[in-house]
Design brief:
2 domains; about 250 residues
Length: about 250
């Protein structure tokens, strides 16, 4: 049987308490056609599957086998990410995999907050219930496994990284590449084929022994334009993507 001690021994996780709220109508005739006022009512356990980071609070004091577990939640580091933390694509892919595999379980909650903060909160009460022991042990083993190797699904992570690379090409990579090429070959480029530029960048990336992009801590992509353009040594290599250009004196 799983004990609280088993949960306390899991590394790279934090235990928090939940203190949320909901708005409840007073059913008093008043303003507007809908009528009535509302008051805020405290919640010691979430009533919905999505909860706010602001409703999760650090535990004050020592935790042991005598600690009440009714409002305790386990938050694994490798299953949460944000725009301004040290997380990257492993945490994002782990979150996606975990939600797909376990999101429908009653004790699993999604957390959200500012700056893209996203994570998983697991009810300790649910983990300790004998009725859930097999699935709970499976989840605990998975979280422990992340402390040995922090990726659940390498194929998914690689796919998400590549998709982010493609998005970065569309958002800024093609334009930056063309601007750098214009400078390199002393060109005035009036028009170019964006899809052909994308294909050229992808061909260079596929032909290289190392990738020409880096996944940053916020999950965005840095494309190394200087390394990319170094692979284009003649104007003839660039001409197929150009629609209208002029060679400057």
């Amino acid at each position: 049987m799983i004990s609280l001690s088993d949960i306390l021994q899991i590394d790279n996780c934090i235990l928090n308490t939940y203190l949320g709220y909901k708005w409840v109508k007073d059913n008093v005739p008043g303003y507007y056609s809908t009528g009535g006022h509302e008051h805020m009512e405290d919640l010691n356990f979430p009533e919905v599957k999505n909860i706010r980071y602001s409703d999760i609070h650090n535990i004050i004091g020592k935790i042991d086998e005598n600690t009440p577990v009714e409002d305790l939640f386990l938050i694994p580091d490798y299953l949460q990410y944000g725009d301004y933390d040290s997380s990257s694509m492993p945490e994002r892919s782990n979150y996606k995999t975990f939600i797909e595999d376990y999101g429908d379980i009653p004790g699993i909650y999604e957390i959200y907050g500012g700056n893209g903060s996203t994570g998983i909160a697991i009810s300790v009460k649910w983990l300790l219930s004998p009725d859930n022991e097999d699935k709970a042990r499976e989840i605990i083993n998975l979280i422990n496994g992340l402390n040995e190797y922090p990726v659940i699904d390498e194929e998914l992570m690689s796919s998400m990284e590549y998709d982010a690379f493609i998005e970065a090409i569309d958002n800024y990579g093609s334009g930056d590449f063309i601007s750098a090429m214009a400078k390199k070959f002393n060109l005035e480029i009036y028009d170019y084929d964006g899809e052909k530029v994308k294909d050229l960048i992808l061909d260079i990336n596929r032909a290289g022994h190392s990738e020409y992009y880096v996944i940053e801590s916020d999950g965005s992509v840095y494309i190394d334009i200087e390394r990319l353009i170094a692979q284009i040594t003649t104007l003839d290599q660039l001409k197929p993507v150009l629609i209208d250009y002029e060679v400057l004196a």
